[in-house]
Amino acid sequence: MSLDKPALRRALLDAEPWLAATDVGPQAVDAGSCDACEDAPRLLPLCGPAGADAVCRRCALDLGDDGWCDGHLDEGRAARRWAAQLPDHWGDATVLWWVATGELRLGAIADVSTTALPAPVRELLPAVE
Length: 129
Fold this sequence. Notes:
Elements: H1 5-15, E1 44-45, E2 54-55, H2 57-63, H3 73-84, H4 90-100, H5 119-122
Antiparallel strand pairs: 1-2
Helix pairs in contact: 1-4
């Protein structure tokens, strides 16, 4: 399987402009699963008493202000508002972003559902057997 990573990055940014954010989203955290649930991809960096470094959307919303220190409560609230407005396929787009940037290996797309992604993104993905 081969993948044109630069083309995939461009297609993802065209289709999912939220991926360009650097203070929240997949560019703001290390690639991997949520520190709290270990199920969904990491999305938001934390700095609070929750004891996690980065969590998925659901866990961030569940943590509320507990995910951020007193000095960053406003940023935490803004991050949760940002995450709440993401499309339902945010997790799949996040994994594809990390594959496109080389943070995850190509095999990571095996568990990605591409049905909600736009055709220009799907067309760049190799068939997964």
